[in-house]
What we know:
Layout: H1 2-53, H2 58-68, H3 71-82, H4 87-97, H5 100-112, H6 117-125, H7 129-139, H8 146-169, H9 177-180, H10 185-195, H11 203-220, H12 225-240, H13 243-246, H14 250-254
Helix pairs in contact: 1-2, 1-3, 1-8, 2-8, 3-4, 5-7, 11-12
Amino acid sequence: MPTYERLKGISVSAQAITASPTRSEFLDGVRVSVPVFVASAPFAMLFGALAVDNGFSVFEAVLMSAMVFGGASQLVGIELFGHHAAGWLIVLSIFAVNFRHVLYSAAVGRYLAPWTKPQQGVAYFLLTDPQYALTETRALRHQPSFAWYMGLALPMYALWVVNTGIGAWFGTLIPDMTALGIDFLLPIYFLGLVMDFRQRPLWLPIVAISAVASVVAYRTVGSPWHVTIGGLAGVALAVIMPPRFSGVGVAEAKA
C-alpha cells in the first residue's frame, strides 16, 4: 500500500506539472484576445442587424456567424442575398473575399505542423486576420502551442457569435457607429498589429505598396476586395525582391 500511494502521488504530481503550463498558455491566449473581441463586437452586432434587415431570421444570422466566422465575407454575403443574387455567385464572392486566408494558412502552417490533424483542422477554421497576426507575433518569441491558440481563438469565436445574436435581436436599438466613432476601433487595432512586425526585413516597402494598392483598389474595385488586392501586392513585392533584401539566408550566413 505505501508503494502504491507513493506511485499514485508521483502520478498526480506529474499530471499537475503537465497541466499547469497548458492552463497558463491558454489563459495567456485569452488575455491577448481581449482587445480583439472588444474591437470587433460592434461589427458583429452590425452584421446581425443587417442580416435581419436583409431577410434573415435571428437563428439564420447566428448560424452564418458560427459557420462562416468571417466579418467581411459575411457582410458581402448578406448584401448579395438581399439583392437575390444566385447562390453560386454568393459562394464565389465569399471565396474571393476570403482568399487571403489561403495565404494565412500557408504562413502559419509551419507552426501548426507538430499538432495533430484534428487540432490543425480546428485551428484553420478559427484562423482570422487578428489570429494570423498574433500567431506570427507569438512565433517571434517561441513556438505557438495549441492551448495558447485556442485561448486566443475561442473567446473571439464565441463572442462573435453571441454579439451577432445581440445585433440580430436588438438591431433597431444599435446607434450609428460612425457617429460614435466606434467604427474606428478595429482599424486602429489592426494598425497596432502591423507595427509589431516593423523589425522584419522589407517591412516598410511591403506595407507601403500594400497600402497604395489597397487604396487604389478601394477607389476602383470597391470594398472589401481592396483587402485581398493590397495583401497580394505586398506578397508580390516580397517574392520579386532579391533574397539579400528579404533576410533569407542571413541566419545561415551568421552560423
